[in-house]
Each structure stands twice: as C-alpha cells, then as structure tokens.
Amino acid sequence: MAAIQTNGLTKYYGDVRGIEDLSFDVREGEVFGFLGPNGAGKTTTIRTLMGFQSPTEGSATVLGADIADASALREARSRIGFLPSEPGFNENVTGRRLLEYHGSLRGDVRSDELLELFDPPLDRRVGDYSRGNKQMLAIVLAFMNDPDLMIMDEPTSGLDPLKQDQFLEFIRAEQERGKTFFFSSHILGEVRKVCDRIGIIRNGHLVELEDIESLLDRTGKVVRANLGDSVTANEFAIEGAHDVTVSGESVGPATAETDGGEDSKTVSFTYTGTYEPLLRRLLNYDVLDLTIEEAPLEDVFMRFYGDHNPEETVERVENERGDDRDGGGTDDRNTEAADV
Ligand SMILES: Nc1ncnc2c1ncn2[C@@H]1O[C@H](COP(=O)(O)OP(=O)(O)OP(=O)(O)O)[C@@H](O)[C@H]1O
C-alpha cells in the first residue's frame, strides 16, 4: 500500500488555482521531496492531504485513509506527524508546557532523545523564541509520538546550516527505521541529500516525478573555471556544455561555429555530460580555480520548463510515467472538509 496516493487532486480557492489534477504516490519507507518555487502549490497540497481543507476535485489517501473520510483520517493521523512551515504556537506559554500538552494529547515516547538533537530553551516563553528555536520545538513536537509517516512543509526553514544538516541526517536515520517522509522544499541541494524520489510542482501542476539521480543527471552541474590562460567560449564547445559564458557575458549555446570573440580567463557553463571529456578539456589549461556545483532549482525550471505550457509538460510526464501508477483511490468529488 502506498503511504500517500493522490488521484487528480485539485484545489481552487474561488477562481485561484492552488493545485490541479495531481496524481502521484509516496511509497512506504521512502523519502519523497516535493519541490517547487514560491506559490507553486506545495502548501496547498500538504494542507489538503492533512484534511485541513477539502479538495475541489479528485481524491487522496493517506496511510490508507481517504482524506474525505473524517473519522478514517482522524484515526490515521495518530500515525502521521505534521510539521507546518510556520508553526503557530501559543506564544504565552513555555516550550516545556507545550511539550507536556502535546505529549498528553498524542503521546510521548521519545522527546528526551529528540531534545538532545534539537534543543530549544524549554523554560522560556515561546513568544521569546527565535525562528530557529520555534522550528526545533516544532520538530520535537512532531516526532515525539514516533509517527510512521511524516508530512513536512519546508521543514528546515529557520534552522541554521548546522541544524539543517543535523535534521537531514536525522531523516536518513529515521528512514532506516522504516519511516516514510513527504516534504516540501524549494532547495534542490537539501532534497538531493535525503530524497529517493522527487515531484516538481509548478503553477499547481506536477511537472516532473522521478528518482533524484535521474533528475540530477539531466539537470547538470554549473561549472566555473578560472584559468591562467585566455579562453573563448568556442574552446568549451564540448558536448554537454550549455550556455557557455566568458567574462560574465553570455554568448549563447556553444557550437563549433560560435565564438563570442571574448577574451577572458573565466569560463562558466552548465554541463550535463560525464566528467571525463570536461576534465580532459580543462587539462589543456592552467586551472587556477574550479567549482562544479549543482544548478539552483530555479535554473532547473528554466532549463526544462522555462517557456513551456504547463499543460503540455504534464501531458508529457503522464505519457512518460505510463504504467507507473497504482490506480488506487476513489472517485469521490466535492467531499466535505475532514474534521481533524
Ligand atoms: N487561502 C488561500 N486563498 C487564496 N489563494 C490561495 C490561498 N492559499 C494559497 N493560495 C494560492 O494558491 C497558489 C498556491 O499557493 P501555495 O501556498 O500552495 O504555494 P507554495 O508552493 O506553498 O508557495 P510557498 O513556497 O510560497 O509557500 C498561489 O497562487 C496562492 O496565491
């Protein structure tokens, strides 16, 4: 059974599209990253899956419970942890009080262990917490009853880089214990560290769904080299190099015919090939500095989906996915808001 299954899930806010026709599944035991730029529909998806709002059309199950079935969803939620993007706490009480309160409602089997990793100042008023401390408290509250499925909306926001890494490491360890994760992010770097598969959402549509390695292979790397010798764009017209730039000025895609006429010692481009030809080419130069990094997510969108009509992209993805669907779920329409 899939941990999460959506079928044509759609949510409109009046005339405003939140999400449209989302169909995907999250398998038990996997870490699934849900990526998209601001306003893409990530929070809408999560809030709909949690039963906080009802879909306009389509259906979904979470740990087997139909999100339109309030009592089934309530029961399933005892095994689901939720980490919202902006935890809304009662700011007048201490963290410890909230911990006790949540523990009495949902159970507490591991807050001591969690507090060793994520350590908000429990005896202070939550209203005096920094954003990072609030997020750490939210993490402890979400995990303290040891849920099987964790749904998280931008979970690392507010955490400093060290805590972010610690949190991602924690996710990996939890996955080893058989836990399932569905989380939204707009940071490709963080999802690549932990996710098995990712879905990319844009303008409310799912435009990509695949395992992380395949996506990164297609995305390519951003290469930037400072050379001791002068270079022109044409010299890096190797297969797999895109948008070769010298001196910070784009000269367009490199081809054998193209030579931007630039004379510079810095070259940068996106590269989608294997490393060997790239390194061979670089060996012809006196390389003073070299960085090879993942492309920012926004660039990924621009490269693959920049001018495309989302509907066309969705059609392509659907065709590519073909028989990859389980086909479960119901065909409920216009369901009532779940009472959770
Ligand atoms: N309560 C609401 N009322 C009206 N429109 C909404 C509401 N919530 C979201 N929307 C709209 O739905 C679309 C998707 O928003 P959503 O918050 O789901 O995106 P997101 O991917 O989570 O963005 P972000 O990363 O900025 O949080 C946006 O156009 C947004 O303006």
From TrEMBL:
<keyword id="KW-0067">ATP-binding</keyword>
<dbReference type="InterPro" id="IPR003593">
    <property type="entry name" value="AAA+_ATPase"/>
</dbReference>
<feature type="region of interest" description="Disordered">
    <location>
        <begin position="311"/>
        <end position="340"/>
    </location>
</feature>
<keyword id="KW-0547">Nucleotide-binding</keyword>
<dbReference type="InterPro" id="IPR050763">
    <property type="entry name" value="ABC_transporter_ATP-binding"/>
</dbReference>
<dbReference type="Pfam" id="PF00005">
    <property type="entry name" value="ABC_tran"/>
</dbReference>
<dbReference type="InterPro" id="IPR003439">
    <property type="entry name" value="ABC_transporter-like_ATP-bd"/>
</dbReference>
<dbReference type="InterPro" id="IPR027417">
    <property type="entry name" value="P-loop_NTPase"/>
</dbReference>
<keyword id="KW-0813">Transport</keyword>
<dbReference type="GO" id="GO:0016887">
    <property type="term" value="F:ATP hydrolysis activity"/>
</dbReference>
<comment type="similarity">
    <text>Belongs to the ABC transporter superfamily.</text>
</comment>
<dbReference type="GO" id="GO:0005524">
    <property type="term" value="F:ATP binding"/>
</dbReference>
<protein>
    <submittedName>
        <fullName>ABC transporter</fullName>
    </submittedName>
</protein>
<feature type="domain" description="ABC transporter">
    <location>
        <begin position="4"/>
        <end position="228"/>
    </location>
</feature>
